[in-house]
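Query structure, 323 tokens:
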């Protein structure tokens, strides 16, 4: 399905044991002098492949720590073969985002993610069977599916943490953080600096190009689900694809970046008739009232809601060979 030059044998030497699992940093070429970092984490007998994608102003480290903690290591211990992607310029991808960066969401969808999937296929022997996303990564993965509908035959299910496509500005908190912060201050900083970093805004831990920021902001504000480069209609294409079962998580304290109402509207938009939303809170029996980031980084999540990820994958898997 995807054709990218990637030497799997060359990458095989970079395997590092971390307790009972293995870390392997893959550097996948996507353009001359440009590589996308994919962190593979697996157990002794890698099972079905899982692709994990970060959100806006983030990178793949939201899914793992070098110490062996996080969702990706948890899944690896359950027998899954995990691949956490750093989109172009983020995390371990090179070169880093700078004012010269001229790429955005479109390039991520047409080049970065196909290259990552090609690497998964070469390393595991199969394309990703499951997807995991945090925040904006959910909108990106559903757009990726719309661009490449043939992926659907390889996919069993997905789990999204705090993912939406549009944020309705229906509260004071949303208006302050998004209108004044992400929109107004973000636009100014992107023009002056030439790109946007999370530290500029006080949230997020990585940078994104000016084009990526512009495309993200447009969709978040409610622009049609259409690509600004070539006019590709993602929504129209998704409506013709068999719905992907997605388990959505959000935290009860996440009232701006992934408020439950915005997630439900996202589910309706992509046609999530087999999807579910679970709001994590003490009242629901969870360890704590979760927010946007600790939904993935809280140590107690391993015993709290991470097992629900595995249960969802097993529920929709037909023929998987994980434990």
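Result returned for the query:
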């Amino acid at each position: 399905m995807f054709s990218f030059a990637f030497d799997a044998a060359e990458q095989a030497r970079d395997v590092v044991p971390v307790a009972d699992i293995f870390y392997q940093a893959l550097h996948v070429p996507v353009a001359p002098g440009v590589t996308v970092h994919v962190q593979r984490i697996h157990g002794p007998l890698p099972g079905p492949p899982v692709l994990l994608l970060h959100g806006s102003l983030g990178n793949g480290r939201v899914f793992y720590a070098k110490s062996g903690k996080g969702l990706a290591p948890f899944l690896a211990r359950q027998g899954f073969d995990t691949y956490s992607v750093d989109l172009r310029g983020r995390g371990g991808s090179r070169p880093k985002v700078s004012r010269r960066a001229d790429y955005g969401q479109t390039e991520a969808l047409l080049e970065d993610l196909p290259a990552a999937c090609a690497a998964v296929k070469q390393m595991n022997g199969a394309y990703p069977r499951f997807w995991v996303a945090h925040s904006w990564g959910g909108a990106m993965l559903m757009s990726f599916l719309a661009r490449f509908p043939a992926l659907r035959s390889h996919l069993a299910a997905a789990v999204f943490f705090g993912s939406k496509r549009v944020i309705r500005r229906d509260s004071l908190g949303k208006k302050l953080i998004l209108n004044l912060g992400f929109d107004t201050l973000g636009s100014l900083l992107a023009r002056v600096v030439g790109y946007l970093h999370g530290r500029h805004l006080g949230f997020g831990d990585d940078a994104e190009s000016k084009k990526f920021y512009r495309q993200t902001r447009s969709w978040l504000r409610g622009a049609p689900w259409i690509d600004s480069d070539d006019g590709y209609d993602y929504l129209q294409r998704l409506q013709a694809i068999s719905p992907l079962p997605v388990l959505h998580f959000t935290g009860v304290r996440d009232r701006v970046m992934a408020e439950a109402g915005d997630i439900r509207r996202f589910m309706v938009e992509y046609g999530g008739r087999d999807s579910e939303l679970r709001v994590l809170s003490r009242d629901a029996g969870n360890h704590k009232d979760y927010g946007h980031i600790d939904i993935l980084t809280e140590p107690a999540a391993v015993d709290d809601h991470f097992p629900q990820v595995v249960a969802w994958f097993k529920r929709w898997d037909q023929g998987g060979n994980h434990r």
